[in-house]
């Protein structure tokens, strides 16, 4: 079983994306956090295989989540979700080792594609091959 952690302070967005991903495949679990502090708590108590995080959040932002991951478990791939995209931001996240980014608003199918490219199954397949498209 794989765990995907979604971190976003927009509760409606978080619930919608969680419901969408959770309904598509029984081979992974979707964990959530509404800010960076809660995300770090989840990361300390659960094995996580992929993180989708917003950058701008109260308490602890996405940068703190990324810093914690890169220091503690650098093998976890991170996808940044943000509405505040810029060339400077793109340069920064590449330097800190973020796998991918997606600009808000986005189509759910774009997240589907990214997850199926990044998150392999134990048996060597990918999510899309075993449970159909999201």
What this model shows, in words?
43% of the residues lie in helices and 19% in strands. The protein has 134 residues and is α/β, with parallel strands linked by helices. It has a single domain, classed as 3-Layer(aba) Sandwich (Rossmann fold). Helix 2 runs parallel beside helix 3. The chain is globular, with a radius of gyration of 14 Å. The model is unreliable at 121-134 (pLDDT under 50).
Features:
about 130 residues; alpha/beta; Rossmann fold; 5-stranded parallel sheet; 6 helices; about 45% helix; disordered C terminus
Strand content: 15-25%
CATH class: Alpha Beta
- The DSSP helix count reads 6
- How many strands, which pairing sense, and closed or not: the largest β-sheet? 5 strands, parallel
**CATH architectural grouping:** 3-Layer(aba) Sandwich
CATH superfamily: Response regulator
Question: How many E-type strands?
Answer: 5
Strand order of the largest sheet: 2-1-3-4-5
What order do the helices and strands follow? Answer: EHEHEHEHEHH
Overall geometric form? globular
Q: What is the radius of gyration computed over CA atoms, rounded to a whole number of angstroms? A: 14 Å
Helix content range: 40-55%
End-to-end distance, in Å?
A: 17 Å
Low-confidence stretches: 121-134
Provide the structure class. Answer: alpha/beta
Average of per-residue pLDDT values: 83
- Classify the fold: give the CATH topology: Rossmann fold
Number of domains: 1
